Amino acid sequence: MSDSGSARVTRLLPDTVHEAVQPGTAVARLETTHDRQGVLDGAWWPRSRNIVAELPRLITALTRHLGPITRVGLDAGAWEGLPTRMIIDDRVVHIDSFPVGDDTVLITRGDQDLFSLLVIPPHATPGAAQAAMAEAVRAGSATQAEQILIDTGTGRTDPTSVVEGP
Fold first, then answer.
1. In Å, how far from its chain's centre is CA 15?
2. Full-prediction pTM beyond 0.85?
3. Mean pLDDT by 10 residues, the chain (166 residues)
4. Which of 58, 40, 65, 62 is nearest to 132 (CA)?
């Protein structure tokens, strides 16, 4: 976060945790103070693992409330066809591949504002996704992304990709 004296307008995302959640939903509690508490800043439930199809919707939603997003960090092994950059809403968004795990995406606004979002697997049920999102945005939560997925029963693998034995 910047220590400069320039004022920054921040509009928080609407609190949709208690509404019906569907794939493609992003819920965030985005604190912009230096003493942010909690491990995660929000959650995202993409419809698929196709980053080219999914990321523009997330970036557009975040940009409306936070201003320009400059970077996205995620695990290349968790997404199909990961580019190094994308043009979203006429802006270049750089995509960095980190072994952060398929349960987290890192969003950078400006030069230094970093937000960590829980990624809910596309196959999650609405009830499990809602519970995971609620925990991810709970103020002061120290629960790691992987543990939230375990605790809420969202699982880490797509049940359609499970290979059964002979």
1. 15
2. no
3. 39 45 62 62 88 91 87 88 92 87 85 85 88 84 90 65 36
4. 40
